[in-house]
Input
Amino acid sequence: MFDNILVPTDGSDCAQAAVGYASDLATRYDASVHALCVADSRTLENAPKYDQIKKEREEVAERTCNDISVSGVPVEQAVRTDIPHKAILRYTTEQDIDLIVMGTHGRTGVERYLLGSVTEKVVRLSDVPVLTVKAEDDGEVTYPYTDILVPTDGSEGSEAAIDPAVDVASTYDARLHALSVIDTMAMGVDVRSGAILEALEESAQSAVETIEQQATQASVSAVETAIEHGNPYRGIRSYVDEHGIDLVVMGTHGRSGIERYLLGSVAEKTVRTSPVPVMTVRQPE
Output
């Protein structure tokens, strides 16, 4: 599934943490890794030290390549001058990249739980899955994966994450967890009883069974399903903590997702605050 993996880097601790995850995946999938460093064209237009900045970017890319090559993974380095998120997306298309692995924030990232603008834009716009990783001091390394969570609401947006999740679970011989959280207050009324709740529970059961069936067909070693009630984002976060989840794979928008370039609030909050890496998958056009 993953043959070419891209690691955008700016030399920050968070970007460096992504290198380990990319190398591990590349080893498992026998894939190549591309290390890309972008010199922001907006800050270079009138910069007197253009050559020096370009050289610094090349050094960052080279160091990243050296770190990756230690694991025996084939690696290519590239330096581009452009608006960073545009360069990343363009490189992804040009080089047939099928997975981007990047830190949740780089040198411009301010708060611990806020996505840097570059990562946020890549997650929103990328046609290929994006694995977002926090800096190592924000949490422990979670690979090799043993427990993978796929949150679902049964929508086409959430179902886009099933194939990658099943494939990673199969590759790592990991347990796959399918979770559907019924948002009982979403309709503005308490639906904890009656026909409405029954319909929601049937839909949730169908959603997790779809994942279970695909995982079983792919010979995933263990599958668990769960249906919970409450706030979806909080339900996902609690499940991660309570079940030792070390990777979340989810669609960028579910039933509430509207525009192509907007993350659903559940996915957005999960990416921003998850203690473990999150692989987001956008539904193909």
Q: What stands out?
A: The beta strands are 4-8, 32-40, 75-82, 99-103, 130-133, 147-151, 175-182, 222-229, 247-251, 278-281. The longest strand covers residues 32-40.
